[in-house]
């Protein structure tokens, strides 16, 4: 098994699927000649040519809508958003058109589009470029949303997304692009809608997704080393479909839950997870469910403060101790 | 402030009553008598279907919005009558006429309006969301201009697959001020897509006239020049002219893979939707003038009578049959069942509707 970066894992997924299916097209701003704003698509133009790897103008509503239309006729476009923050200018296409077409046509039309790109704060770029819209988008039935935290999941989820017959929105993280991990060379997928227990424990369940998983794993080590607490970390991987069973199974074991996400707290993913736990595992709980999310304000520019605004290891450890108190 | 230049209407709009100057255009001259009668029949069917809808709406059986196509029939009829197997269409919410033109049945169309499970979208789409992908009809879209990028994507897919086809994306005159439309224009031209944008200019974006909505001194189609696209203006009251000029755009799409913007001047007799009392922004006299002098169904009937393709008796038979068909559709819609509570959560995800050994996800897709 090769050790490759999260970025290389995403690229490998696209390369595999471009080779497997002639209807797969990579499209987005700077994906071809420029080799990708974050170099995720580096080398693909050279390997697959301009018919398969397509540079678009800065025109998200236009090219995302075009991808949706093309997908209705059987093309499988993998659209790169330079930042998911830019999806907001294409919201009508992403939600109204991609998300509703199957339903409104009574199941006559499929929309097998993938939209991928980074959706994260923590990069010192201010509020407009730091949005994390997984909760917003996952609140629309018809849409699937995944947030890989590791290179293995990045490759497997992206491949599953490209093969899926519904719109799948893949939210990556620029801070994770250089993270390395073991990734099989052979063909595999990570099924959409299946969470993963990233660390086994007995005293506390931390539910997280995206980079919050990495933060939580670091916090779990400190909790074990310094406080003698055994923490289980459940990585959601998919926001919608949500793997309720894995979350509930872990909570039934540990009886305590801390939910960590880089979203803002109001109507965040973990608001839904908290509801799930209280509605289906209320009697299992030995303590109230706690949350750690970004401080509820537009993303601050100042790097020192942004690091405090977002969930970090210290905040997760402190909140975990409260749940355990 | 300088006075805006005169709108660039096609010359033929000024002389609507006489014989069509486009009757001898090859695309029309080559039509058989049967084809002409069939085209007239389709226009009459749209007219009677829509008029029947008014009664059902007034009976309270059609919910939401109902945008009627009455007065605009020649646009859908003329353009769609030219299309072949790899030509696709997509439109906005005034979508009944296009549906009937591509061959959707009155029953499924009417039942969709009344929200019945026998409707074309099983009661899930409603008036604004007709779809018939088997007939290359991709909707039926509710948000003004939102369909323009989708249509461009259909044209992209046609070209990607190496087919000699096209996509016609219809929109109203109000849509030309939406950003998505401009983005679609740019992409269609930049990538040489076999695309025809059809601006059905009925003069009003809801209740706002073109003069009050659009900062452009000339016609709307001329905006195509900003995107290095061909354009044309068409008298949409003359179905022969619609066919003749659309045929040129189709040829450009098929043979050169180049897009065109067509602005087709037309007029709607009823409000923007049935919820529009239609009393504040235009006067009854204006509507009457169009009805009396420029009615596209009437003008084509007169044309065919002059050509001796139609007789008054045959015309009567065609119209009676269309009315009877609409009446029957109304009964069908009335007697059809509603979707069930369980139907609400169908057709959301392909995977849920096609669960089988290959289904991989196990997560919750529909939340309680």
Give the full name of the CATH homologous superfamily of chain B: Thiamin diphosphate (ThDP)-binding fold, Pyr/PP domains
CATH fourth-tier homologous superfamily of the largest domain in chain A = Thiamin diphosphate (ThDP)-binding fold, Pyr/PP domains
Structural class label of chain A: alpha/beta
CATH class of chain B: Alpha Beta
Helix content of chain B: 40-55%
Largest sheet of chain B: 6 strands, parallel
In CATH's first tier, which class of the largest domain in chain A applies? Alpha Beta
**Judging from the principal axes of the Cα atoms, what is the shape of chain B?**
globular
Q: Tell how many strands the DSSP assignment of chain A holds.
A: 14
Distance between the first and last residues' Cα of chain A: 42 Å
The chain-level structural class of chain B is alpha/beta
Largest interface: A-B, 55 and 57 residues
Q: Count up the domains of chain B.
A: 1
The main sheet of chain A orders its strands as 3-2-4-5-7-6-12
Q: Order of SSEs of chain A, N→C?
A: EHEHEHEHEHEHEEEEHEEHEHEHH
Q: Looking at the structure, what is the overall shape of chain A?
A: globular
| Low confidence ranges of chain A | none
Q: What CATH architecture of chain B do you see?
A: 3-Layer(aba) Sandwich
Radius of gyration of chain B: 21 Å
